[in-house]
What we know:
By secondary structure, the chain is α/β, with parallel strands linked by helices. It has 16 helices and 15 strands. Helices cover about 45% and strands about 15% of the residues.
Amino acid sequence: xxxxxxxxxxxxxxxxxxxxxxxxxxxxxxxxxxxxxxxxxxxxxxxxxxxxxxxxxxxxxxxxxxxxxxxxxxxxxxxxxxxxxxxxxxxxxxxxxxxxxxxxxxxxxxxxxxxxxxxxxxxxxxxxxxxxxxxxxxxxxxxxxxxxxxxxxxxxxxxxxxxxxxxxxxxxxxxxxxxxxxxxxxxxxxxxxxxxxxxxxxxxxxxxxxxxxxxxxxxxxxxxxxxxxxxxxxxxxxxxxxxxxxxxxxxxxxxxxxxxxxxxxxxxxxxxxxxxxxxxxxxxxxxxxxxxxxxxxxxxxxxxxxxxxxxxxxxxxxxxxxxxxxxxxxxxxxxxxxxxxxxxxxxxxxxxxxxxxxxxxxxxxxxxxxxxxxxxxxxxxxxxxxxxxxxxxxxxxxxxxxxxxxxxxxxxxxxxxxxxxxxxxxxxxxxxxxxxxxxxxxxxxxxxxxxxxxxxxxxxxxxxxxxxxxxxxxxxxxxxxxxxxxxxxxxxxxxx
Length: 496
Ligand code: AMP
Ligand code: ZN
């Protein structure tokens, strides 16, 4: 079908490299998931949609993939040292696990709205305390950590001298780290070096989320969960590790240090990082009001936009920039995305209706070349915007075949069916879009079916002289602004 080789930009080497999985035909992929202490924001959505397209494309290429995306539900501290989950629990007067459940549910619902595929495993940090304690022990045994007053710290200086890889991912050198480490400010004095970071933290007596360990009743450091859970489910070295580029330091740098410190091997062969979502050219940030929630974007209730946009239009908008570039959300950009999205969906509907009697095949080569180019683009570090532009090269051709400006009979049957299949595969299988028109039709069909059922129940009630039920149905429907009219030809209904 397509012959180019997949290349990915590896953040660890800062180079585009040919992708070669450890075991041919299989891929292990780990992506850092959300910290579930508040509503998922659009920046998170951008990162998870990007990795969803990567996952979908690798599946499309025929790989068997174990895709692990964790849920962080302990240990991710704020700058003031408070655990994010505990802060959520305190503010909302909920149990910490209620906070975790609430925002995990919200995250899943949002991922569904954006039509992303579920990961193969979604492990939680609190469900893997034993594995994390075991990893701390290994790092201690290998001499890359030390214990102080019940907490255990990773010894970055000793590690950097012994392994010569600390800083490879983020490009930072240990001296620069002296002034930068913000980890565990409260216990700064306990560390031998400011860039050391806690892998186990002793909990204060009032701290709720804590577990027994050889060192203290405490909890794991945030970076540790990803090291422990990726090792457990994907092995000590696996293929792809992903996340937003804001996680490169300290999270991913320290993850690598922990894995090398525990197992003496690099956790992942390829590190992929998504870039940030901006709004009107600035980082989306709650503190200066430069933010919009997904719901506000769908309803249009925000000063930043002039109208609401469907989730698929928002997703289409996100797909128009490469995952490693920033993505700047603007009202004009969304309006343009809406137009383009409708155009490509319309073209797909038209395309699926075309038939050919294949009187010649002189258009085949041109069409096949464009399709091939779309795969070449995807193989070039998942260049979705470029692959999308190939579909848009096809759109005017499809439209001309419909109005007869291009004679569709100049396409062979094979070429037309390949075009029909690949065009819709790109939209739905690879990019994970849905046609909003189908969605509306689907809802319309469901509503019509439901109304047939209700009218039927009301008819039986009337036949049985059960006027109470019949009236209740009519009144309730009227409350919902649905009018029913009984006529000679049966009962009709309409939405007011
Ligand atoms: P968090 O819940 O903050 O741990 O973030 C979950 C994922 O979303 C991580 O991979 C982050 O890098 C990513 N992320 C956070 N903010 C943004 C943003 N503004 N744009 C893109 N990705 C983001
Ligand atoms: Zn992580």
